[in-house]
Amino acid sequence: MGHESGADVTDAHSGGVLAENAALRIIGASADFEDAIEAAKDAAGKTPGVTGWSGYSSTQVESIRDVEDHARDIAGNIQSSAEEISSTDQESSGGFSESDGDLSRPINHGPYSIY
């Protein structure tokens, strides 16, 4: 990108779709983890008396749920941002298309320019 601000709305929306697909793959990991811990606990049996399954499981499941929530939020935020940018571009495009006069000074040149 050059010396401008903006976004490619199509790319942003595509990124949101990819993030949503990734979130869908992640969601359910906490339940899978709980099932795996329960299976390990059952497989270990009561002897030799391994403890700590519940505490470990609840701590880790909480962290995994946070990841699931973040993944869902990121996907929604990317797509919402793309829609908002598109809407803003549409609203402001009329003002730029009506301008047909030349500026009296060069653009992007001067004491603060990177040129």
UniProtKB/TrEMBL annotation:
Q: Where is the composition biased (Low complexity)?
A: 89-98
| Protein name (Swiss-Prot/TrEMBL) | Uncharacterized protein
Q: Where is the composition biased (Polar residues)?
A: 77-88
The species is: Nocardiopsis aegyptia
Where are the residues of the annotated region Disordered? 68-115
